[in-house]
Amino acid sequence: xxxxxxxxxxxxxxxxxxxxxxxxxxxxxxxxxxxxxxxxxxxxxxxxxxxxxxxxxxxxxxxxxxxxxxxxxxxxxxxxxxxxxxxxxxxxxxxxxxxxxxxxxxxxxxxxxxxxxxxxxxxxxxxxxxxxxxxxxxxxxxxxxxxxxxxxxxxxxxxxxxxxxxxxxxxxxxxxxxxxxxxxxxxxxxxxxxxxxxxxxxxxxxxxxxxxxxxxxxxx
Length: 220
What we know:
Radius of gyration: 21 Å
Number of helices: 2
Structural class: mainly beta
Shape: globular
Distance between the termini: 30 Å
């Protein structure tokens, strides 16, 4: 038996940043269209909800807890967005460069990357890939103001809800997180070639069953 040790060198971990965003609009049939780079992504705030306990009483005691379903939501913030996101934001192009609003909103998938750091390697320690499925953006405010002596770029923000997709051997989910330090490097490179595209392939968002097969994840 060994004694616990806190704050060892190389084990003071942290997570920071958001980068390499990719938008994947949905296609008919529940699959995702070709991914496009999301430039200007500034923040993704993950907001799970639900999983609330409802106590049940019997025989004058707390008998059990019934737990509500858990849902995944997020807030996306950016200085700009891909043209392909317009359909996800309720817009339709009726002529080149002419958009109308209040149209049906298209669901989409999203991939982004965060940095894993520690006290020894700093931000070069590793990273996480975050995959979001079945996302639907709600209408959002866009505030425009005059240019003055303290100019600021407009920040766009969208509240996002999700619909989970099937995961073989597990409950459906709308989110997958992949940690670079815990996944085989060769398999991770193969996954990133799918997500970001390659010389002969278009970027796309694989569904969980394909990720399980590729990464060799054990089913529950």
